[in-house]
Amino acid sequence: MAQPKSPPKCLHLVAVFSRHRTCLEWATTRIEDRWGALALTSDCFDHSETRYYERQMGSQLQKQFFVLQDFYDPAELAASKLESNAWEQEVAQTANFPEQRPVNIDPGYITLTKIVLASAKDRAHRIYLHSGIYAEECLYYLDHAWQPRPWTYPDYQRPDFQDFFHQARDLLRQRIAESTRRQL
């Protein structure tokens, strides 16, 4: 009989996008204040593969990724998404921006074998967690590369995003090795 085990070590990965630099900066500060120190920050990327968010968020969106320093408990994913949704509402309610949704904050996590994102939208490939939040494995690691699923967002397949995800995976490997050495 299989015995339950602790989940693999992972790091908190957060994607933030907006057309307003001030929203990206605000989200960065909020993430650090609530979830901890940042270990990696990506460049700002053009978020132009889809027009899905344009009606709510406007055009010329910029996306940025953050990886937090400490290990992350994947059981906290739904709570992280609920908290980030509340932050989005907080910004929208300031009425400082013309868009209905000035910022989008998507928490997830990265393991050595996958990248998982949280969503409040149900789809056939998403697994229900709790409180209206679902988990989606959007990339998996095989043959020294991040591999997409049929549902993987087009931007997550871009070489520049993939480069950042490789950096994040390398950081995780390093943190796991350091943790193992400390336990010896």
Structure, described:
Helix content is 33%, strand content 30%. It is built from four helices and nine strands. By secondary structure, it is an alpha+beta fold. The protein has one domain. Strands 1, 2, 3, 4, 5, 6, 7, 8 and 9 form a nine-stranded antiparallel beta sheet that branches. The two termini are 29 Å apart. A hairpin with a 2-residue loop joins strand 7 and strand 8.
Strand content: 25-35%
Residues in helices, as a percent range = 25-40%
Biggest sheet character: 9 strands, antiparallel
Shape: globular
Write the element-wise H/E pattern from the N-terminal end onward: EHEEHEHEEEEEH
Query: Mind telling me the C-alpha Rg?
Result: 16 Å
Please tally the β strands and state the result: 9
Low-confidence stretches: none
Task: Report the mean per-residue pLDDT as an integer.
Answer: 95
List its traits.
single chain, about 180 residues, alpha+beta, nine-stranded antiparallel β-sheet, 4 helices, 9 strands, globular
Question: Would you kindly provide a brief summary of this structure?
Answer:
This protein is of the alpha+beta class and 184 residues long. The protein is 33% helix and 30% strand. It has helices at 21-35, 54-57, 77-93, 159-183, and strands at residues 11-18, 38-41, 45-46, 62-71, 103-110, 114-119, 127-130, 133-142, 145-148.
List the helices and strands and how they pair.
Blueprint: E1 11-18, H1 21-35, E2 38-41, E3 45-46, H2 54-57, E4 62-71, H3 77-93, E5 103-110, E6 114-119, E7 127-130, E8 133-142, E9 145-148, H4 159-183
